[in-house]
C-alpha cells in the first residue's frame, strides 16, 4: 500500500512515467502555426473588449446628453402645442374666426 496514493478514502494508482514520444495532439498544439493563431485570437479578444467598453461609454454619454438636453425641449414643444390647441378651441367656441397658423 505504500506505492499507492490515498486521497479522500480512494486509493489512486501512481502516475505512469511520461512517454518518450509525444502524440499527435501535443505536436499540433506546440506547432508555431497554432501558437500564432492563439496569439491572434487573444489579440482579437482584447480589441473586442476595448471596443465594447468604449462603445458602452459613448452610449452612456449620448443617453445622458439626450436626457438633459432633448427631453426638456420635447416636453416644452408639447406644452406649446397644447396651449395653441386650447386657444384655438376657445376662439372657435367664442365665435371668433380661427386664425391661420
> Main β-sheet: number of strands, strand sense, barrel status?
2 strands, antiparallel
Tell me the radius of gyration.
Answer: 37 Å
The total count of helices amounts to: 2
The residue-averaged pLDDT reads 82
* Overall body shape: rod-shaped
Strand-residue proportion: 5-15%
Q: What is the helical fraction, as a range of percent? A: 55-70%
Number of strands: 2
Spatial separation of the terminal alpha carbons = 102 Å
Low-confidence stretches: none
Derived from helix and strand composition plus strand pairing, the structural class reads mainly alpha
Oligomer: single chain
What are the secondary-structure elements, in order, as H or E?
Answer: EEHH
Strand order of the largest sheet: 1-2
Note the topology.
Layout: E1 5-7, E2 10-12, H1 24-29, H2 32-94
Antiparallel strand pairs: 1-2
Subcellular location: Mitochondrion outer membrane
Transmembrane segments: 58-75
Family: Belongs to the Tom22 family.
Amino acid at each position: 500500500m505504500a506505492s499507492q496514493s490515498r486521497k479522500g478514502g480512494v486509493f489512486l494508482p501512481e502516475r505512469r512515467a511520461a512517454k518518450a514520444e509525444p502524440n499527435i495532439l501535443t505536436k499540433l498544439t506546440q506547432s508555431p502555426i497554432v501558437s500564432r493563431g492563439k496569439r491572434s485570437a487573444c489579440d482579437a479578444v482584447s480589441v473586442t473588449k476595448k471596443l465594447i467598453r468604449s462603445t458602452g461609454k459613448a452610449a452612456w454619454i449620448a443617453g445622458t446628453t439626450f436626457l438633459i438636453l432633448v427631453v426638456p425641449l420635447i416636453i416644452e414643444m408639447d406644452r406649446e402645442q397644447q396651449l395653441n390647441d386650447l386657444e384655438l378651441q376657445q376662439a372657435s367656441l367664442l365665435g371668433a374666426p380661427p386664425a391661420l397658423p
